[in-house]
Design a protein that fits this description.
The protein is of the alpha/beta class. The protein is built from 12 helices and 13 strands. The strands form 3 sheets. The chain has a 5-stranded mixed barrel with strand order 1-2-3-5-4. Among the domains are: 6-101, Nucleic acid-binding proteins (OB fold (Dihydrolipoamide Acetyltransferase, E2P), Beta Barrel), CATH 2.40.50.140; 134-263, Succinyl-CoA synthetase domains (Rossmann fold), CATH 3.40.50; 355-394, no CATH class. The longest helix has 44 residues, at 306-349. The chain has helices at 6-20, 59-63, 104-119, 146-158, 176-189, 191-194, 217-225, 242-246, 254-261, 265-303, 306-349, 351-356, and strands spanning 24-31, 42-47, 52-57, 74-84, 89-99, 136-141, 163-168, 198-203, 230-234, 249-250, 361-363, 381-386, 389-394.
Length: 396
């Protein structure tokens, strides 16, 4: 056997392996994954329990991925073998990367959902209320799709006074998510002059791939940051996108979005008529109430007038005078009776009554009552008081 050079060996291996493995599907686990290189390419390993191979994902392929790669993620790589003859090494160059057991879009949706949910973008506390009677509604969608026709038709049927402002945007394919997000932000920036009351963001039905723009992070962030209330209307009722979860309200279809936002004019007229009747009844009741209060106040004012006050004071004076007369009469009567009683007692105790029974009172010349014989002497003049007069005597 004639020996060959190392270069010849490597070149022969390259010529043999590359055609034989120009399109191969390999399942394994990503290892030593550190994210894309500054060039945009990805260099890592694809491994299983028995072996590993160097994996290369070129920038173009990597940027088309909908889901995030991570160390340890099980994937199926479709690609080709590339032999680097100079070093005698071979690598698996990916042309397609799919997560094992689940589609790439489903995994991308799950990853986006978990990340935004952890950030609180789906929390009900961030939802804005929808206006009851919007005057202008903006619609971000394709200007030629069925969705905009359904929205305009429904809005005009329900209430022609509501203005529909269409902001055209690409809703499918490359760059569609960026266009929708840019439209949301621009309408918010111009709303001081546009006076938009609410916004519908959506499109008609389609596959998961068709609706994917509404699962992209730029759209979710723009909806979350919007100061204008956003109603999502993406696809059919069975379709659920990230935009639906972030929006202030999710409508199952574009037609339903218009029905939710646009109140029926006939219903509004009926409501206004009902309010007018209630207002009229309320005003009549209020007028009657205040009329009654006014009459009561007039009666009180009349009752408090000077003439009525004089009459009341005259009545009060007459009453007091009658009371005074009655009081004086009864007091005089009481005093007269007491005086008569005291007079009787006084008369019963009077010394004159004693004199009538045969007694007498003797006084000396100074008028002092003589109680004992020793109080006089011979020659003193005395005066004796009898019942019917007085007798003067000289003591001998």
């Amino acid at each position: 056997m004639e020996p060959i050079s190392v270069t010849d060996l490597s070149n022969q291996i390259k010529r043999t392996l590359e055609p034989a493995f120009s399109n191969v599907a390999v399942t394994g686990e990503l290892g030593n994954y550190r994210g894309p290189h500054h060039s945009g390419h990805v260099y890592c390993n694809l491994k299983d329990a028995g072996a590993q191979v160097r994996l290369i994902i070129w920038r173009g392929t990597f940027e088309r991925l909908r889901f995030k790669l991570s160390d340890g993620l099980e994937v199926t790589i479709v690609g080709k073998i590339d032999v680097y003859a100079r070093r005698g090494e071979y690598s698996l160059v990916a042309t397609s990367v799919q997560p094992k057991g689940v589609g790439g879009l489903q995994l991308a949706f799950q990853q986006m959902y978990e990340r935004l949910e952890n950030e609180g973008l789906f929390d009900p506390q961030h939802k804005q209320p929808l206006p009851d009677y919007p005057q202008r509604i903006a619609v971000i969608t394709s200007p030629t799709g069925a969705a905009i026709r359904d929205i305009i038709t429904t809005a005009r049927r329900r209430n022609r006074l509501v203005e529909i402002l269409v902001y055209p945007a690409k809703v499918q394919g490359e760059g569609s998510a960026e266009q929708v997000a840019r439209a949301i932000r621009k309408l918010n920036a111009l709303n001081a002059s546009l006076h938009i009351d609410a916004m519908i963001v959506g499109r008609g039905g389609g596959s998961l791939e068709d609706l994917w723009a509404f699962n992209e992070e730029p759209v979710a962030r723009a909806i979350f940051e919007s100061e204008i209330p956003v109603v999502s209307a993406v696809g059919h009722e069975v379709d659920t996108t990230i935009a639906d979860l972030v929006a202030d309200y999710r409508a199952p279809t574009p037609t339903a979005a218009a029905e939710i936002l646009v109140p029926e004019l006939a219903g509004m007229v009926e409501l206004v008529t009902d309010y007018q009747l209630k207002l009229s009844r309320g005003l009549r009741h209020t007028l009657e109430l205040w009329r009654g209060r006014l009459e009561t106040m007039q009666e009180r004012i009349a009752a408090l007038g000077p003439l009525n006050q004089l009459r009341r004071e005259q009545q009060r004076l007459d009453y007091l005078l009658e009371g005074l007369k009655w009081n004086m009469h009864h007091r005089l009567k009481d005093h007269r009776e007491k005086l008569n009683s005291l007079g009787g007692h006084l008369e019963a105790l009077s010394p004159l009554k004693v004199l009538e029974r045969g007694y007498s009172i003797t006084r000396n010349a100074r008028g002092k009552v003589i109680k004992k014989a020793s109080e006089v002497k011979a020659g003193d003049t005395i005066k004796t008081k009898l019942a019917d007069g007085e007798v003067d005597s000289v003591v001998s």
